[in-house]
Design goal:
The chain is an alpha+beta fold. The chain has helices spanning 5-8, 92-97, 114-126, 131-145, 153-161, 168-175, 179-188, 193-211, 216-222, 228-239, 243-249, 256-261; strands spanning 13-22, 35-42, 44-49, 54-59, 62-66, 72-76, 80-88, 107-109. Strand 3 (44-49) and strand 4 form a beta hairpin.
């Protein structure tokens, strides 16, 4: 799908959606120029994710969140049957800040997957023909997917305030927990408070770079850094390219301009 300029002003728009089957074996590693949600109906294996190439266990039914510019690759141990959607827009930044899009928990499991299956089925019906209906279906999908898992609520709350320039003790105080409780909860997701905060800030910065024309210094302040030079060094070390370069090319997959003019491909 290639949204028109007016459709891009909706704040959230669909770039493609479909269904796919992956055979066992590793897929090529790559990064997308947009957001993606992949719902695994059948199969199991691993998701390689992030600059550290962390392996996350995956077993259907599960939802995979993929963020722009973040390296990923599939490691199916059995055949995977999946539905997928590619999307972008300025609304992805506040959705991430509010914890509805979760870069630190790329794999989500659901005890009852039926609401999410219905949300994906609706999105697949409308995505190819009507961008406005696709936008509504995307919001419904993201809302449906945001079902709290045991132990993840505190992580979501931390993500929501991660761009505030606080120390770890101050974050714990703001959340009404001890530092030990905060560390123990993030450890359940295979992370640390510092990693949750840094990942959330970097992904927020990526969204602002890709979807706004704000100066680098303003983006640095919005994600919690008063020193733009320090932010640029941190972003470069984490992403592999400075903020200005990331803004110019969008992601490691290619220039923003050429990405936006191409229909989305079905391999996510």
């Amino acid at each position: 799908m290639t949204p028109s300029p007016s459709e891009r002003q909706l704040g959230l728009f669909c770039l493609g959606a479909g269904e796919q089957r992956n055979t066992p074996g590793a897929t090529p590693e790559r990064a997308l120029g947009c957001h993606a949600a992949v719902f695994l109906h059948q199969g199991k294996g691993q998701l390689l994710h992030g600059p550290d190439r962390t392996l996350h266990e995956v077993q259907a039914p599960a939802l995979l969140w993929l963020f722009p510019g973040v390296l990923h690759g599939y490691r199916p141990s059995t055949a995977w049957q999946q539905s997928w959607v590619l999307f972008s827009g300025t609304a992805t930044a506040p959705l991430t800040q509010l914890g509805h899009l979760t870069p630190t928990t790329p794999v989500r499991r659901y005890a009852d997957p039926r609401p999410l299956q219905r949300a994906f089925a609706k999105l697949l019906r409308v995505a190819q023909t009507n961008q406005l209906q696709a936008t509504a279906a995307l919001y419904d999908l993201i809302s449906t997917a945001h079902q709290e898992e045991p132990g993840n609520e505190l992580v979501t709350q931390l993500q929501a305030i991660a761009c505030h320039p606080l120390s770890i003790p101050q974050y714990a105080e703001a959340l009404g927990v001890t530092i030990d409780d905060l560390r123990a909860t993030t450890r359940q997701t295979g992370s640390t408070p510092q990693e949750v905060i840094l990942t959330t800030r970097i992904n927020q910065a990526k969204a602002l770079l890709a979807e706004t024309d704000l100066p680098i210094a303003a983006i640095a302040r919005q994600v919690g850094y008063d020193d733009p030079a320090y932010f640029s060094r941190l972003f470069s070390a984490r992403v592999g390219q400075p903020p200005r370069t990331f803004r110019r090319i969008g992601s490691i997959s290619g220039p923003r301009s050429s990405f936006r003019s191409r229909p989305a491909t079905p391999t996510v």
